[in-house]
Design goal:
Two copies of one chain form a homodimer.
Chain A: E1 6-11, H1 14-20, H2 33-45, E2 50-57, H3 65-82, E3 87-92, E4 111-113, E5 118-126, H4 128-131, E6 149-153, E7 171-175, H5 184-195
Parallel strand pairs in A: 1-2, 1-6, 2-5, 3-5, 6-7
Antiparallel strand pairs in A: 3-4
Chain lengths: 203, 203
């Protein structure tokens, strides 16, 4: 089986899931935590080398305050949860902004947790303009490699600011189900689909 | 009808079309010209403000020489064809490289043809690293605006180096048919699909 080295994940549909289930929009984010851990374990099982989660971007912080606080907390919880696993963890995003949760400051340099292993990147207040803002030193996300496969939940077909430079050759797989309805099969079907892609990197 | 302001086009599948039709790979590029004009006229009809074609990228020039010469010629022909229309035309790409066809040098600054109107951008030897290579002046493609809708022919689900920064919020529509089999309905179905997308730009 030809596997992607680096999988990107856009776990979208939390708010729509909550509304469909008779909750207020922000309740959906809580439901996104355990799928995140399930997906991490699947990537371990398939020996994926690098995994990047879309937490939130600077653009997302324009949403109503209650939503913002809720998805920020969900990201803090997710990163702390992942720090209990075996991973080389990095939180990437504009940490000089008030929108960056202080609790995640210890993670802005890559750090080994447990026995290490998979590179796990988590976008928190990520902003591609910030990423490019000091090109004399290269892009700020230079520790994150090219993404081979991006899986997006929730049916939208867009990157929404996810690592534009690492995604120039990514294959893009869409799951129509919302992220809180994550199933193992979503991931496995994405891997099977990836097998059939003809990877040439333009050449 | 809510229309995309800026449509990006990845006209892929020329080589696979040629092979399926019993020709050698490079014969497909010729068949891509008239669909390009048809698509341009459709965009005029729908009053699309800006249209960007993926011609080729610097990565594409690694392919066998005969292929490279053929797709380069197809791009020259396409740009010259578009210059007979009413358009504000720009060819964007690394024009300092030998891979950039000299015949297209007159187009590396935006120029009005006919009565002007639609902004038409054509990527020729485009390279995102080149685009970012002198960030003190901003990106080199700064005259090209955010892309709302990207339509890709040929079934692949990736950007392949298409304007990464302008594409951070683009909605991505895939046509499984190969580009030489272009039909009006492909474009119109993409516009209908675009209607149903919830455009928030992250907010």
């Amino acid at each position: 089986m030809r596997l992607p080295m680096h999988v990107g994940v856009i776990p979208d549909g939390n708010r729509r899931w909550a509304v469909n289930n008779g909750m207020t929009k922000e309740k959906g984010y809580d439901k996104g935590l355990s799928p995140g851990l399930e997906l991490f374990k699947l990537c371990e099982k398939y020996k994926i080398k690098e995994l990047t989660f879309y937490g939130f971007t600077a653009d997302n912080t324009k949403r109503p305050k209650l939503q913002r606080l809720t998805f920020t907390k969900a990201c803090v919880d997710a990163v702390e949860m992942l720090s209990k696993e075996n991973a080389d963890l990095l939180v990437i995003g504009n940490y000089e902004s008030d929108m960056f949760p202080k609790k995640l400051l210890p993670y802005i340099q890559r750090k080994r947790f447990g026995t290490g292993g998979m590179k796990v990147n988590f976008l928190v207040n990520y902003d591609w303009k910030w990423d490019l803002s000091d090109m004399t030193k290269g892009i700020k996300s230079n520790d994150i490699s090219r993404v081979d496969l991006i899986i997006r939940w929730g049916g939208r077909r867009r990157l929404s600011g996810f690592l534009p430079l690492q995604s120039v050759y990514s294959d893009f797989y869409i799951v129509d189900d919302y992220w809180p309805d994550f199933k193992t099969e979503h991931f496995e079907e994405a891997l099977l689909w990836y097998q059939k892609q003809d990877i040439t990197l333009g050449g």
